[in-house]
Write a structure and sequence with these properties.
With 575 residues, this protein is an alpha/beta fold. The protein contains 19 helices and 18 strands. Helix 3 crosses helix 4.
């Protein structure tokens, strides 16, 4: 029986059956409420919109990671901390033995990386549920809310039983239906089968060219670089590391892995014209026939120990281990075939890195990674650094990454290797000339990628400084956005303010593709939303940079830094 003053929190797609279920409960218990947490992946369909208009007790709540506790720390940061604590508690148990490891991985270093990879995958999978529970804790402590009991229903995660044991507060009940756990388990199996290419029937009937014709004939050591279309060339190109090295271009191989940068005919033509080699990551890679691939997969499965006791923990551990094992064997084949000695990996937050890292270790190669952006949130449980060598901007980033559960083998401080183009000064000074003659001071605003934890912060950030400039006519604003913005869709009030200031020649929006370094020459100071890389790059070029720590990341080393940064907890202090 559900207690009085109870809210049912549904954190998946809200279906008609869910609403009917809660309607029956509502009849039984008049104090019942349904709180529907809508994530970016969940859409409010016709049924939900209609029911919301009829039943006032169905309330929609977007998760707001900008919400802070009494100490000024955001729900986003505490969620990461809670996830890490839970992982620490049950991972000692779930990975306490080596009986699930294939015999070939019974090596101290490789087995430790294997376990680290499993922890990384589990962290990614459980973090979404921890996010919801942490958000409920914040909401529950809101003085406006008189409800005292909460039931969180997640009908799609098999990891719920692990988390239930570590919910400290007794008035939060976490539920997952048994049938849902079974369905999710089947999803894990199917995803693993598909990722291995076992049932990709297209592979039986077609053979694609997946690499340069001459690639196999060259047995010399090679450098593999993950292809990223956006930064293939220019100041941020991955081959910036190789520009002063006398190394044959054809021994540098661009491989495709990112779903947003798969190799097509046009990109292959550009790579070949530049003198480099290329390779597509096809699941049928180098197998003479489909049946030879099936044979090898079966051999891998046989060599992966089957758990002696069949329960949820051992089954999950087996499936995760097998999936990792299959990916390791797949990458070992690629690395050994092409004699890969160095792999430059740029995909952040992908567990696939571990399969590559272990395969490289087996075949005598190394993995290299590097910092794209300065961290503006705590090191998360799903921030992975499995590289042999990791190049980072400086001591602050280095010390920050040393706090991670997934520390690289070696960290080298290399400085900012891009955005040092001399054209930044020319572009910045030309932008400055476009403001009207009455402008005495120009502020540069650099934002971040708008995500669930930053959307409301974006509104507050822009409104604060746009209104300030509106009232103070001697101020101008240079906006250097992280990405292209449709200001009308973002917020109509912000759009109106921007349009007014543009008409007065007091606001300029720079191309999002330009370096934040232009802010140092086009503005008198830079104000970064959160602690972001744009503000750091502007400071590197000589700008006075102020950062608004919107998420309450109070442990960030920039608070105590001797660098030209000033970090503020709220916007009024910056004003």
């Amino acid at each position: 029986m559900i207690k009085k003053n109870t809210s049912i929190i549904w954190c998946d797609d809200l279906s008609l059956s869910t609403i009917l279920y809660c309607l029956i409960r509502k009849i039984i218990n008049t104090n019942l409420n349904l709180m529907y947490i809508r994530t970016p992946r969940n859409q409010q369909g016709l049924i939900v919109r209609s029911c919301k208009s009829i039943f006032s007790w169905i309330r929609y709540y977007p998760i707001d990671w900008f919400l802070k506790d009494k100490n000024g720390v955001s729900v986003r940061i505490n969620s990461d901390s809670n996830c890490d604590k839970i992982m620490d508690k049950y991972f000692d148990y779930i990975l306490s033995t080596n009986d699930y490891l294939p015999q070939k991985f019974h090596n101290n270093y490789i087995s430790s990386k294997f376990k680290e990879a499993l922890r990384a995958q589990f962290s990614k999978d459980v973090s979404a549920i921890i996010d919801v529970i942490t958000w409920v804790e914040y909401y529950k402590n809101d003085e406006k809310d008189k409800l005292t009991n909460y039931i969180v229903i997640n009908r799609g995660s098999i990891h719920v039983p692990f988390i239930k044991n570590y919910i400290i507060n007794s008035n939060i009940i976490l539920i997952t239906h048994s049938i849902s756990k079974l369905i999710h388990l089947l999803k894990v199996v199917i995803r693993m089968i598909i990722s291995s290419g076992i049932f990709d029937l297209r592979l039986i009937f077609q053979r694609k060219t997946t690499y340069n014709d001459k690639l196999l004939k060259d047995n010399r050591g090679k450098i593999f670089i993950e292809y990223f279309k956006t930064n293939y060339s220019g100041a941020r190109a991955s081959n910036i590391w190789l520009k002063d090295i006398n190394f044959e271009k054809k021994r540098i191989v661009y491989y495709s892995q990112r779903t947003d940068s798969l190799l097509d005919d046009d990109s292959i033509k550009i790579i070949e014209n530049d003198g480099y080699s290329w390779l597509k990551n096809e699941k049928m890679y180098h197998y003479r026939s489909y049946f030879l691939k099936i044979k090898e997969i079966i051999s891998i499965i046989i060599n992966c120990p089957i758990p002696k006791r069949l329960n949820l923990t051992t089954i999950l551990r087996y499936l995760y281990s097998l999936n990792l094992y299959l990916n390791i064997e797949y990458w070992t084949k690629i690395i050994s075939t092409h004699n890969v000695k160095v792999l430059i990996q740029i995909e952040e937050g992908s567990v696939l890195q571990y399969a590559q890292k272990i395969a490289l270790r087996i075949e005598g190669g190394i993995m290299i990674g590097f910092t794209w952006s300065i961290p503006f949130t705590p090191i998360r449980t799903q921030d992975f650094f499995p590289q042999d060598i990791y190049f980072t901007w400086g001591k602050i980033n280095r010390d920050w990454q040393l706090n991670s559960k997934f520390v690289p083998d070696r960290i080298l401080t290399a400085g900012i290797l891009w955005d040092v183009d001399d054209q930044n000064e020319v572009i910045g000074k030309n932008i400055r000339k476009k403001f009207n003659d009455k402008i005495e001071i120009i502020m540069g605003l650099t934002d971040v990628t708008i995500k669930d934890y930053s959307k409301r912060a974006v509104f507050e950030y822009y409104k604060k400084f746009l209104y300030y400039a509106k009232k103070n006519t001697n101020w101008g604003i240079l906006i250097k956005p992280k990405a292209k913005r449709n200001w009308e869709k973002l917020d109509i009030e912000i759009s109106r303010l921007i349009n007014d200031l543009i008409l007065e020649k007091r606001l300029i929006i720079a191309d999002e593709k330009l370096s934040p370094g232009i802010v140092a020459y086009g503005a008198d100071l830079c104000i970064g939303m959160l602690i972001n890389s744009g503000a750091v790059i502007a400071a590197k070029h000589g700008s006075l940079s102020l950062c608004w720590d919107a998420t309450g990341c109070l442990s960030h080393p920039l608070y105590n830094s001797n660098n030209p940064f000033f970090v503020y907890k709220n916007l009024d202090d910056i004003i």
